[in-house]
Amino acid sequence: PHGSYVTLSHCWGNAATVFKLEKANKESLLKELPPLAKTFEEAIIAAKELGARYIWIDCICIIQDDKADWEREASLMANVYRNAMCNISATASSDSTGGLFYNREEIFTGISLSYPETGEKLLLIREELEVAGWVLQERLLSPRIVHFTNRQLAWECNEHIALTFRSDLLPALSGIAKYLQEISGATYLTGIWK
């Protein structure tokens, strides 16, 4: 499906306590969902408000204790994020209990703001979710992202990001590889990480 669903980016926190789809609970979850953690409940509300019919949440949509299912679904994640209407990002929440909705000081209403690479946009980088490993893929591939932080609600649109010239492809990929090399300590050599 293209655009009829949203995705959720969230921190798992303590993986042992997060609600997740497993072999043992799959059949019961197909019949009825139990009460969900605050982040998931509020993401469902946000999805409905955005007009989405479905929401994709990794820990509920991938069987976590089934290696074959996890590997198959992990290989499809790029398409899941790329084809979603948008990504809901629980940016400030350190686990599934933190939620999305915070009382925020109302500063501007009805005004469209565009932040340069310095300033407010940097607040997102310091939030809880922005340190998770999978987030880079989610941010790069999602056409649109709604960041729910404790200080702001930010809309990030990547829908029309494209290379102006085909010759820009390798320098762009090289820049991404260099950045990943710096933050991971891994070495990148002609398409191979070691």
UniProtKB/TrEMBL annotation:
Residues 5-102 form the Heterokaryon incompatibility domain. InterPro entries: HET (IPR010730). It comes from the Eukaryota. This is Heterokaryon incompatibility domain-containing protein. It comes from Hypocrea virens (strain Gv29-8 / FGSC 10586) (Gliocladium virens).
